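Predict fold of MULE transposase domain-containing protein; 432 aa.
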Amino acid sequence: MTWYNIKAMLRLDRATLANLIDCEDNNIPIALTIQYHQVYYQMKKVLQRRARLDTDFVSSINKWLLKITDQEHPIIHGFSVSRNLNEYQTGMFFVAFMSKWQLQLLAQNGDMVCFMDSTHKTFLQCNVTGKGKPLACMVTNSEAQHPIRFWLEWLKDQFGYSPSMVIMIDNSDTEIVAINLVYNRNDEVDVFNTNVKIMLCHWHIMKAWKAKILTKLVPKSGQQKSKQERQQKRSEALDCLVLMMQARDLEEFDLAFDEFEIWCRENEDWETYELIDYVEVVNYLPKKEKWSKAWRKENYNIDTNSYIETWHRHLKEVYMMNIKKQRLDVLMYYLLWDFVLPDMMQDHIRITSGVQQRQIAIETKAHGNRLLSARSIISSMSEYDPELTEANYGVATGPHMSRWAEDLRRIFNEMKSYRNNPLGNHHQNRFY
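Predicted 3D structure, encoded as tokens:
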């Protein structure tokens, strides 16, 4: 419940407010004395009282781990693991947990793209609901590879889980190293080794590109450039990088890369060396297979971590009520006990029972509608002229044929634009 909802409950009716406006008495209803910080404090206290099983932090976490694994119910019953990693860094640790039902979803949706965020949760797009669901969670106090590696090894060795297709992550070298150590090891016989493909989120890459272009693409010493000239040149540089991201095959990627190098050489008034070095050597060219569409063939047209990012925002703004700086036991209480897991199961039941429809992304739904429209038009054209072929439909004569051919061109252009757009229509590729 948010402050907006609480204010709605405390709101007085208009007649009462009219009487209070005209009244000189200072005795106002108690509902008008309640302020945000008072509600925030009480909500925080209630949350801590429910989630903290012991005043000592470590004891509270250990009791939560026991509580998760001691449940008798076959679905709510969970699995957990914790480990101190002092051999790598003093004080380093990780805690991981999930329910048996989440493990079942991991197995049932194993052919989908798996999402992993830097907060270290494993997400899948559920085949039933069409939403992203947190199916395995890990919390650590370190940004090193070791907690991620041991967590993934726990999922693989303990439960036999290996993503069958792709893991989508942010642009994190730490996560890449951990995933390769667990799933892409070629130095030994591993029955679970599937050579999992790693893809980088286009949204995070675009964000990084724009930030780096701002700092690395600057006029040379002595060159005065206006604000509009700077914006124009930065947009041109970003366009060159986006062409590499959108490339449909290796030849198109190489051509786009050559155009980027030519653009950098031709702009003699600008410092481009650091930008070239950033793209070619430091970050992107060595791992081009992970972010360019030239190497993306089996990703369900998913190019961003939007499923997991949307859920994180929902967790912070709805479940956590914007209450900051909570302990780990509070997070465990939310994720596996009283809120998130029951709500996930409730949504799942709504979909399977037919009460609620499966969620489909707006762009994906529009793409499907265009495909159905194209098939309908082609069917009508074939009925109108049974001898119509793919080679001559575009130049067919007659009012019906001309209209249908024009509709087909429009639909196919929209579908092509949808497939080639790296971030959808909700993101801007320009500098302002």
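The first helix runs from residue 3 to 10.
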